[in-house]
Each structure stands twice: as C-alpha cells, then as structure tokens.
Amino acid sequence: MRRDDRDDPFDDIFREIERMMDEMMDGTNGFEGDQSGFSTDTHVDVHETDDEVRVIADLPGVKKEDISVQCDGEQVTISASSDLREYDERIGLPGPVDPRSGAASYNNGILEVTFERTGESTNIDVE
What we know:
The protein is mainly β. The protein has a domain at 44-116: Immunoglobulin-like, CATH 2.60.40.790. Helix content is 12%, strand content 34%. It is built from 1 helix and 7 strands, in the order αβββββββ. It has one helix spanning 11-25; strands at residues 44-48, 52-58, 67-71, 75-81, 86-92, 103-107, 110-116. The strands form 2 sheets. The protein has a 4-stranded antiparallel sheet with strand order 1-2-7-6, with no helix packed on it. Strands 3-4-5 form a 3-stranded antiparallel sheet, with no helix packed on it. The relative contact order is 0.17. It holds the Pfam family HSP20. This is Hsp20/alpha crystallin family protein. Belongs to the small heat shock protein (HSP20) family. It comes from Halobacterium sp. NMX12-1. Residues 35-127 form the SHSP domain.
C-alpha cells in the first residue's frame, strides 16, 4: 500500500520548521554576510598569575596593522578587521592591571596581550 503524502498531518509542520530555519540562517552557511564581534567560534582566553594577566585571542585572517588594543586597567578592548569579518570586543580582566605595562604580540592569527598586575588598592572611609 502506497502512502499518500497529502494525508500526512505532520507535513505542514515540517515545512514550517524548515522555512523558519532557512529564514533564521538567512540562506547563508554562517561564514558569509555581516559578522562582527567575537562570536561563539572565536576563541578568547584570559590567564592570570600572581604577577600578570594574559589575554589570548584567535584573530584568523587579520593583518597585524589592522589590530587595535586598548586597556583602561580593568578591561581590554580588541578591535580588528579583515576582508571577511570585523572584531570589536571588550574583555573584562580578573583584577586591576597597569595599562602602561601592556605588551602585545601577533603570530599566525593569535594575539597575545600581557599586563602586569597592580597591587594598588584604596581604603574607603565609612561615614
């Protein structure tokens, strides 16, 4: 006995799910279109020791001269661009650092930024 697809009660549901998935993906495979910021496929690590904080970010396809790194002592802002995507991310640091101590290197798509920790703290008088 041959099944008649017109009588399948789930056919409309599956078509609607497929349409919504196509709409959500906008017909792209995830590598085309406007991509900005650090997405889930961008790897960023923050490592800390007693003396330093190190931020390591994967920035594939970016030229060294297209990378900008800024630090205010509590956050690092990394901005970079390539032909395929743009990166613009603020990374919160696990503790205060000396922004003037920052040293950065970029090799084979991996950015490594190192800062010295500051032991500065301020007492706050309670009134």
